[in-house]
Design goal:
The protein is built from 1 helix and 20 strands. The protein is mainly beta.
Length: 309
């Protein structure tokens, strides 16, 4: 009797479990997935008054079943051509063996997410600061990856850069050969004068030149040794930071052959006699440790002494 009851109870429990399992399978929600489709246009770099400019449309559609954040990883086809400040890009890293940068960026400037089925299109802009040629050129190796905020690579598209000639042609392009070493120079440093800011600072005029088209993010100046009390305050015009003995050259990246003049504002030395001390300006390039192709023209000397007449 006890055996029979136990057998019946076991059978009932097994039947109940099967029923619950069957109902659960019928009502379970479908698994959420992340997926996207990507469309990438062609990059045609057009000649302008300041090198080449081109834009490539990138379209991403959320084909997943849930809202998701998307980001892109981009490898530029021409070293130094992508403005990394756009889309909140993280610090760039170089591709091993060349100067092409790889950047991780947001898909949209505000980092908004896409609902299922939603599409966003952004323009990826590129600038190559070299003199436009009478013949077309090309350079390859660019790609864009789209990543899900949930983690994982969703899509990857490759692209190349094509340079239109000044005559309008894209036929039979030659390989664009870019300089690999920066080549900055100081071409002039003038006499110090009193700055009209009313604080007694000194104004030193400087002219720098960029002789090549190697990739760079800008130039900067270092003054050494500055006498006690003398500190670089800012530049005129000024659009970058100045820190003690160093300042960026205003205006950002420079074209091949471009020359730029500006004034460096320096506080006077504590001891007026130190105004006769010899100071050296050295110009360097913001990039990734590349050595200047001709360091002999990177320095010039001056003093903070005012003209006597």
């Amino acid at each position: 009797m006890i055996q029979k009851t136990g057998t019946l109870l076991t059978a009932a429990l097994l039947g109940l479990t099967a029923t619950i399992g069957s109902a659960g399978a019928a009502t379970a929600a479908p698994a959420e997935t992340s997926s996207a489709t990507v469309s990438l246009g062609k990059l045609i770099l057009e000649p302008t008054e300041r090198g080449y400019h081109g834009s490539i449309p990138l379209t991403v559609t959320n084909t997943g079943t849930e809202a998701d954040y998307f980001g892109i990883t981009l490898r530029e086809p021409v070293p130094g051509s992508f403005p990394e400040g756009k889309f909140g890009c993280d610090a760039a890293r170089l591709t091993p063996g060349d100067d092409r940068r790889v950047l991780d960026c947001g898909l949209t400037p505000d980092g908004s997410r896409l609902a299922p089925g939603e599409t966003v299109q952004v323009a990826l802009n590129f600038d190559v600061l070299t003199n436009p040629r009478t013949y077309p050129m090309r350079m390859g190796g660019g790609w864009v990856e789209v990543h899900s905020g949930q983690g994982g690579l969703l899509a990857r598209e490759s692209f190349n850069a094509r340079f239109r000639s000044t005559t309008g042609s894209l036929t039979d392009p030659r390989l664009y050969v870019q300089d690999t070493q920066p080549n900055a120079a100081i071409t002039a440093v003038g006499r110090a004068t009193i700055d009209p800011d009313g604080y007694g600072n000194l104004r030193v005029p400087v002219t720098v030149r960029y002789r090549g088209d190697a990739p760079h993010l800008g130039l900067y100046l270092k003054a050494s040794p500055l006498p006690a009390g003398a500190v670089i305050q800012y530049t005129v015009p000024g659009d970058g930071p100045a820190m003690s003995d160093t300042t960026s050259v205003p205006g950002g990246r420079m074209m091949r052959g471009e020359e730029r003049s500006f004034d460096v504002i320096i506080s006077p030395p504590t001891d007026p006699a130190d105004a006769e001390d010899i100071i050296t300006f050295e110009v360097s390039t913001f990039w990734y440790g590349d050595v200047d192709a001709n360091p002999s023209d990177n320095t010039a000397t001056f003093t903070l002494a005012l003209p006597t007449s």
